[in-house]
Each structure stands twice: as C-alpha cells, then as structure tokens.
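tool=predict chain=A
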Amino acid sequence: MAMDAERRQAELIGQFSAQAAALSSAPQLAALVLEATSHPALFAFSELLTLPALSKVTAALPVLSAPPSPPRKFGLAGTQYASSLDLLRLFAYGTLKDYKSNSSTLPALLPEQARKLKQLSVLTLAESTKVLPYDQLMQELDVSNVRELEDFLINECMYSGIVKGKLDQLRRCFEVQFAAGRDLTPGQLNT
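tool=predict ok
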C-alpha cells in the first residue's frame, strides 16, 4: 500500500510539474499552486518548489539595434503573486500553527487547504513522537472538542492513508503506528 501511495504522489507531482512548465504567467502559476495545495491526495510539495517555472527570473533576450529591455519575469518570485510561493513553501515544510503566525502575509486558505494543512501538521507532530496527546493535537489543529478531533484523525488522516494508529480515549491520546514522511527542508538534507 505504501508503494501505491508513493507512486500516486509521484504521478501527481509529475502532473503539476508538467502543468507548471506549460504556464507562462504569474496568475496562472498562482492558480496552479492553489490547485496543488488543495488537492486531496497530494502531500509532498518540495519538488514543486524546485521548478524553475515557479521561481526563476531570467534576463531579457537582447534585440539588435533596440534599447535593452527589462528582465522578463517568469514564475512567482518578485511578483504580486509571490505570497503563493510562500504558501507553497509553507505546505512543504510548515504547519497550521506556522500559517496562523504568518497569515497576514499569506493568501487566505480555502477549506480544502486548511484541512490539508491540518493533515500535514499531524504528520509533523508524528515525526517527533508516536504518542500524541489529544490536548496537544486540539491546540495544534485548532479543534475545540475531542469528538471533532477523533473524527478528523479517522476521516481525514487514517482513511486517507497518511497515518495509522489507535485512538486511546481513556488516555486521551493518538498512538501513531505509521505516518507518511514530510518534505525535508534544505537544511535537513545536509544533516
């Protein structure tokens, strides 16, 4: 089953990469970021961050006997849509808590994106410990009661295959048996 999930992630990344390469304007690329971060089955984003189509700035081609033209921008960096690139970076490496700390500089989240960021937050927490207290999860996920938390963990995390575990209502914790990996930050690759 893990191989199927990995294969599906690779297919989705390939599809979004091909789409990004074919797009030529920042608004189109921002819409692609919105689509990728809202996709219910995509949980890996760092490869999209490396796409030149999203972040490169290239010099203008010289035209003989014409004054130099300004650099043409491709991608999102340096445009009014740069916050979409920051949002993609957040989905690759961040959590809902990170979004809330920086929400004034990021685009508003759609409900699908908020759900995805909560799922990614669960994965981040599961990287450091395999027993996640309900109180910590409710605070990190901005969930107000145990029923809502358990429904989220079952319906949005376990059923989607990103985590497996046991809900322990007596001890008020989620015991993680498996969690899909998150994207590695560039600094983590060297350690």
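The CA atoms of residues 54 and 75 lie 4 Å apart. The mean pLDDT is 86.
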